[in-house]
Amino acid sequence: MKVLLGVCGGIAAYKAAELLRELQRQGAEVQVVLTQGAEKFITPLTFAALSGRQVLTSLWNPAVSDSASAEMPQPFGIEHIDIAQWADVLVIAPATAHMLAKLAHGMADDLLSTIALATTAPIVVAPAMNVNMWHNAATQANLKTLRSRGVHLVEPASGELACGMVGEGRLAEIGEIASAILHAANPIRDLAGERILITAGGTREAVDPVRYLGNRSSGKMGIALAEAALARGAEVTLITTTGRVSSLRCKQIQVESAEQMRTAVLHHLPQATTLIMAAAVADYRVATPSEQKIKKSSEHLTLELERTPDILSEAARLRLPGTLIIGFAAETRHVSEEGRRKLREKDVDAIVANDVSGTESGIGADLNGGTMLFADREVTLPLSTKRKMAESILHELATLRVDRLQRIS
Ligand code: PMT
């Protein structure tokens, strides 16, 4: 998610730094735009250091040129239009009464208000101001206009204000603003009510206490699915081999071997409405791992391998009625044919067949593509980021769920 964070001049401007961190924790890429007023309260350098990007401040010379951020790459070519198009969502926090007035009247006299006019991305405003300014009829009329145009408003909280007065006008809680941003950037909540169990990463099978047999799976595909499912309103449990992802607000279970993954999947399966197995599970493990580190003695070493349990097939057999199961097929040739074979043999609802023969996409890479195979149809998943591919897979899942419900009723 690409977030443009506009900061206006107000005592709450410092809280925008906290918001930036929270958005980064949720996996967002954040570009900060400061108004001249904001610069009086907090320096561009703070945001440049936190975001790792030059902070934009002026319509005429957007990137600030302080010594630290000047070394960072110029984020955009043709300024305000590029910036406006780049964003998935524009958030203005804190938004002053003056900025609300400019937005309501379509005024574009500085970089932030010009971007707001030029962007087609959803806009979230989180106002902060004096209680009387908030209740002023002009401010309320501007808010009414903005709401009617679909601007997402995160209402200020009530309490003691910087001016010493008490009442509405405090910037809303950071968590509240962050969820409004997430919601605005992902208006599709088609997975609300789904409880999705997702596996990610490659399993490791012990050879001895220090060595293992593994594969190149990074967990990125499974994590992208978890992020996208959460954004679409699902409750997610992630079973992963790749370590905790702090930006993901869901239950995460760390496992290592195929056997541990099997135990975790089968334990959580009864509560799940859908299982998606993006993990690269070992097909073989060492039959008898050595209890001691194997010493270098002879020229050749033979390891006896045995089959691991097929978790996907077992889950398909044991699932409760109504549970949907989506597997993956990682292939280096005859991708669709092999995928179709796995769809039949593993008796699942869909298989995402992807090519893992290269280094640019598939296993370990940031990009992926393939075909989603169903018993009666197939959907091409064009080469894209794993997040985009995850969105397409989840769109198909939502369609499948609706189909099933219609068949029952
Ligand atoms: O993690 P990344 O670097 O982002 O890479 C993503 C990926 C390429 C690993 C992912 O997109 C993918 O293809 N995952 C499935 C990898 C795999 O194990 O494919 P397979 O064709 O060997 O297995 C078919 C299906 O059975 C898979 O859903 C797998 O999770 C499951 N399986 C396999 C073996 C086994 N013992 N138990 C299983 O449940």
Q: Can you describe this structure?
A:
This protein is of the alpha/beta class. The chain has two domains: about 1-185, 3-Layer(aba) Sandwich (Rossmann fold), CATH 3.40.50.1950; about 195-409, CoaB-like (Rossmann fold, 3-Layer(aba) Sandwich), CATH 3.40.50.10300. It contains 15 helices and 19 strands. The chain has helices spanning about 15-25, 35-40, 45-50, 65-70, 80-85, 95-105, 110-120, 130-135, 135-150, 175-185, 220-230, 260-270, 310-320, 335-345, 385-409, and strands at about 1-5, 30-35, 90-95, 125, 150-155, 155-160, 165-170, 195-200, 205, 210-215, 235-240, 250-255, 275, 285, 305, 325-330, 350-355, 365-375, 380-385. The strands form five sheets. The protein has an eight-stranded mixed β-sheet with strand order 12-11-8-13-16-17-18-19, sandwiched between helices. A five-stranded parallel β-sheet has the order 2-1-3-4-5, with helices on both faces. Helix 14 (about 335-345) links the parallel strand 16 and strand 17 (about 350-355). The relative contact order is 0.09. The structure holds ligand PMT. Ligand PMT binds near residues 277 and 342.
